[in-house]
Predict the 3D structure of the following.
Amino acid sequence: MTGGNVIAAPGVPAAAAPSRPGRLRRIARRRSTLAFLMTLPLLAVIGGLVAYPFFYAIYLSMLNKRMTRFVGLDNFAFLLTRETFQFVVWQSVIFAVSAVIAKALIGFILAHVLHALPAKGQRKWRGMLLVPWVIPPAISTLAWWWLFDPTYSAINWMLMGIGAPPIAWLGEPGWARFAVILVNVWYGAPFFMIMYLAALKSVPDQLYEAAAIDGATGWQKLRYVTVPMMKNIIAITVLFSLIVTFANFDIVRILTNGGPQDRTHIFGTYAFQVGIQSGDIPLGAAVSLFMFPILAVFAVFVLRGVTRRSKEMAG
Amino acid sequence: MSGASLTTAGAAAPAYRKVGSIRRERRWALIGAYVALAVFVLFFLTPPFHMLVTSLKSSAEIADLSGNPWVVRRPTLENYWELLQQGNYLLHFRNSVIVTLVVVAVTMVISTLAAFALARMRFWGSATLATGVFLTYLVPETLLFIPLFQIIGGLGLYNNLLAMILIYPTLTVPFCTWIMIGYFSSIPKELDEAALIDGANHFQMLWRIFIPVALPGILAATIFAFTVSWAQFLYPMAFLVSSENMVLTVGIVSDLIRGDTFQWGKIMAGALMAAAPPLLVYAFLMDYYIAGLTAGATKG
Amino acid sequence: MAQVSLRKVVKEYEGGVQAVKGINLEIADHEFVVLVGPSGCGKSTTLRMIAGLEDITAGEIAIGGTVVNDIPPRDRDIAMVFQNYALYPHMTVYENMAFGLTLRRFPKDEIRRRVENAARILDIGELLDRKPKALSGGQRQRVAMGRAIVRDPKVFLFDEPLSNLDAKLRVQMRVEIKKVHQTVRTTTVYVTHDQVEAMTLADRVVVMNQGNIEQVGTPQELYHRPATRFVAGFIGSPAMNMIPARLENSAGALRLHLPGEIVLPVPAERTQRYAPLAGREVLFGLRPEHLTEPKNLDRPNIALVEAAPEVIEPMGMETMMIFSLDGTEVTARLDPAVPVELGRKMPLAADLNQMHLIDPQSGRVL
């Protein structure tokens, strides 16, 4: 027994000791000041270049073309009556929905195919399949533009080789719509593939083994193991891609610039044409802002999915 | 095991046949997989391949409609030479490099500091701010380019590379901060406590523990910032007008298309060289590239 | 080197949960004290308050006579070893050990001298250039200790340092830690949930439960004279048998009436101590090692009882035999040579010199 006497004193009231504004507490306060200073640049970027412009956009969208007069919601009302704008809304929806469905399907298939490969070959194939995603879309779309060239189209050359008639890829509204979707799918499918592949790899093998022992067929494993385990990642990826595709600019701008007859315009390109090229800043801002409600809804769902997923990963 | 197989010897024969059929099934599945892969690799690599083929052709060969557009008969580097020797291509390349380097540096400083504070130094509103960062990442550039156009004009930065340096971080900082929060949060709390007891202050902890330990994450975030800055198209399109101030994504089109004359050979050569830096980064750092790409949905 | 004092230390988390409810503890210079208790008993919180990783809600902690409540960890001159080692993964073993000294701007050659000295004590000289990833669990644990030793602090704090090791390595490292303490003699506070670790390492053991200290004492004291029902049950493996009983006084001699019509005579020398309790319900406590096959029957206060085994656990060096008395499971510890058969009654010897009586209401050992 080296120490002094020791008493267990369960009866001591906890709050009895005076709470001193100690140095440690001061340090804690200094720490949160420091933390605030460290986030200040981030706050400046978000506040000054995202939040402020957003409210500024709302203000701008309520001015007349010369920005001399407040016109309330006139710009929005005017847009709704314009046939071109109605085309833009429709085309944006068609463009985003069909491209995302195609990307998700292709990505899902490719992820499964890759996952089935032996680990050694997987890397090489994955490397090649990701190339479209790595090239800046503004650059790769130039290649597609050239492939769709009315006179020199290398695709048409092949079509003629098998006896099919050449196609006016970018000259005919239907085909032009198809072309912009095709290029978007080409660019975005690898993203889905890699996301799904990562999710597939995170499904524990024991689950498949347990399912196999329970007598599940390959299809049933997919239905009852893979898809439920990937549900969240699928939802996040689809919603995220819906946002990005819906708000796309590069591909449509380069490939068709909205043509022919404004039939391939989506919100982004139309806002650019109206706001920057035609110089009607308020109207352009209004076009962009039309995207906001739908983007906000998607964003909230993405956030929910991500929060849930990180909870799952932690739990 | 052996005892069990002995007692079921009678059933062994049909079981064997079944094993064989599974193996055959597997082989067919694998062949199917390779066919699917080949089809998609062909689809995915056709545009870059055609880009390369065209860039190696002379204008005369491109204009010649009688030949096969998929092959080069007389390969030449003249498109590349002309691009590098005359016109503003090199200038555009330089501008892209400057903008990208500065933006990446600024982004990493801002997001590393912020992520450290948000991941480790809980303070009033930190959770809300982390959520806000993620939501900001989901704001597409097409939503805000018009007010930004006005703001840039107001600052006198129209047609100025500084505008790019000012605005690109809105696209890079939120995502980089978000994934860095994830990486920093995954560092065990005991590591900071050990550092605290070892006598480190907050900056020493960040600089000597967090940054080295989260280096893969930092690399992934850096690559992401690089990719986004290098590929940005809308902002230069809207805010840059004179050729000597342009970056690659807009410079190629503006300089090589004069009215109806498309210099396709040079466009493709320029595009290929513009695609080279991200492709090289990707080739050498594929794992970090993919980590950055997939982290957004799983970290945080 | 220094003593550590805790005076009425309270830790209350937001929401009013009290993890530590006002404890007092004096740790002498050079002493090795182990805080032991089940998870959630407040032992780790106490250690972390000594380290400065948690602030103290009320009360005082002093290290070497200085109250450290408001002193940040780096100025408390303590070193800590964590359960998961907390080695810096990007630094070599040498850099890990040198880090604390580097931050304190020690001269280079002094750092080298200290690291090499610590490496010699811990026998990790070969590993200095490796990264933690390339080390085994035991080696990592040594490095974590080395990081503490080089600092030559006033106090070593260990937070469940052996929990991540396998059983064999744990025993080995236990010996290692004891040797290191005998070499450097630094005051040590060690937290564990493992009573064997506590008993083998400690000069004194502090048993904690639900934020309070149940008992402080040497391992021997805790084993032979537990102060509370909790300590009696917590220290010793397998745990002490506690059988509900009634104490009766028949003609000046005390008798314990156990379930199953068993009546045990209380040793005469305890009559005076227990006499006031006659007629009350108590818990009769007897460790399995004091309930054996019949032996030493010539000694005083050995009582014979009969029981039929319901479970037999042969352990090699001994055999555990478990039977139940009116729903209470009782374990006896037998020589492996004794023949035992499930369900067949056999005689057992209860060494009543080692018995305890516990007040079921207050939980205090009487």
In short: The domain at 82-314 of chain A is CATH 1.10.3720.10 (MetI-like fold). Chain A touches chain B through 97 residues (CB under 8 Å). The two ends of chain A are 45 Å apart (CA to CA).
